[in-house]
């Protein structure tokens, strides 16, 4: 892209679905953005839920700098022996990859089981009391085929619910657990062990203060509905999760190195697509904005969670 100033007039928006997702072009994200352009990009993000930027030219430093227009960035957990120093990742970068501490493909079966949970429909960090809002995922290495990321529109899914269901959900809350999604992905974790670990409770309907629209808030981490027995509550969660991923609410993003996709976790679900993780490298770097960006997020809230993870699960950077 030519080294010229960004202006609001240069920004082009190409919708992906009528109510959800858009590709944004005409803006150089490697340059400092004027307040007007930065606000326009935030507004577009809030309108479309997911935005895609191609061939950004971003590296970790400029990725972090750009992401700050959305709010206060979370810090990735410190995990002893995960190779973070060797890979020289800044604290604001969450690595999503099939690479191990030696920067080679990680063939540990337990790591593969953990990654399997990311292929379930979910929303990032719903298992935390203070949730993640925006996520910005940048492609550093991509497989030669497959490896798509899929997104679902939880606002439109809510809009189209029968009024009777909307009324039923209005006051309901549910508990979310990281280990519940990992169990569904194939990890051998007892229900009793999940009960003893960190749970986060959230309303099943999220109201987007910026747009006034409501969204379903469930996903693979969502485990039990408060006030319902487990069988009844989980049946409701399954029903809603299946509704959200109807074809009219879903699209996929294919990746080339340098592409970036941003989504709002509070109004979307997503899942990673399968690829040949034994023979193909995939390295994606993510910045994440804390839900309550008006306050100092304080210390990294993730390290304790991962330190106390069940013994049968290992995670890598």
Description:
There is one protein chain. With 317 residues, the protein is α+β, with helices and mostly antiparallel strands. It has a single domain (8-307), classed as Double-stranded beta-helix (4-Layer Sandwich). Helix content is 25%, strand content 24%. The protein has helices spanning 35-48, 60-67, 84-87, 109-116, 154-159, 163-169, 178-184, 191-195, 230-244, 302-307, and strands spanning 12-17, 20-25, 50-53, 94-97, 132-141, 149-153, 173-176, 200-203, 205-207, 214-216, 222-225, 250-253, 260-264, 268-272, 283-290. The strands form 4 sheets. It has a 7-stranded mixed β-sheet with strand order 1-2-3-13-5-15-4, with helices on one face. Strands 12-6-14 form a 3-stranded antiparallel β-sheet. The longest helix is centred in the last third of the chain and has 15 residues, at 230-244. The protein is globular and about 55 Å long.
Radius of gyration: 19 Å
State the share of residues found in helices, binned by percent: 25-40%
The amount of beta strand, in percent, is 15-25%
Question: What is the CATH homology-level superfamily?
Answer: Clavaminate synthase-like
Shape: globular
- SSE ordering: EEHEHHEHEEHHEHHEEEEHEEEEH
What's the mean pLDDT score?
A: 89
Q: How many angstroms does the end-to-end distance come to?
A: 32 Å
SS element count, helices: 10
CATH class: Alpha Beta
Largest sheet: 7 strands, mixed
What strand line-up does the widest sheet have? 1-2-3-13-5-15-4
CATH fold group: Double-stranded beta-helix
What kind of oligomer do you see? single chain
> How many strand units?
15
């Amino acid at each position: 892209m030519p080294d010229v100033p960004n202006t609001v007039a240069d920004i082009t928006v190409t919708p992906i679905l009528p109510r959800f997702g858009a590709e944004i072009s005409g803006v150089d994200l490697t340059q400092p953005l004027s307040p007007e352009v930065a606000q326009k990009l935030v507004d577009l993000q809030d309108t479309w839920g997911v935005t895609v930027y191609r061939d950004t030219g971003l590296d970790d430093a400029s990725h972090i700098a750009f992401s700050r227009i959305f709010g206060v960035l979370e810090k990735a957990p410190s995990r002893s022996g995960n190779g973070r120093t060797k890979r020289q990742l800044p604290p604001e970068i969450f690595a999503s990859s099939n690479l191990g501490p030696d920067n080679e493909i990680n063939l540990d079966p337990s790591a593969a089981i953990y990654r399997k949970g990311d292929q379930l429909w979910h929303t990032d960090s719903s298992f935390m009391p203070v949730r993640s809002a925006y996520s910005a995922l940048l492609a550093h290495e991509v497989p030669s085929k497959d490896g798509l990321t899929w997104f679902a529109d939880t606002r439109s899914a809510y809009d189209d619910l029968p009024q009777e269901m909307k009324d039923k959900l209005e006051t309901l809350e549910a508990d979310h657990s990281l280990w519940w999604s990992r169990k569904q992905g194939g990890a051998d974790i007892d229900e009793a062990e999940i009960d003893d670990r960190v749970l986060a409770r959230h309303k099943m309907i999220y109201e987007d203060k910026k747009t006034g629209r409501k969204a379903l808030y469930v996903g693979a981490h969502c485990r039990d509905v408060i006030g319902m027995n487990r069988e009844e509550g989980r049946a409701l969660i399954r029903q809603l999760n299946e509704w959200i991923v109807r074809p009219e609410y879903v699209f996929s993003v294919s990746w080339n190195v340098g592409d970036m996709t941003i989504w709002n976790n509070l109004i979307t679900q997503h899942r990673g697509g399968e690829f040949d993780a034994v023979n193909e490298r995939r390295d994606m770097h993510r910045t994440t904005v804390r839900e309550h960006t008006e306050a100092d997020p304080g210390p990294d809230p993730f390290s304790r969670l991962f330190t106390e993870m069940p013994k049968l699960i290992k995670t890598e950077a």
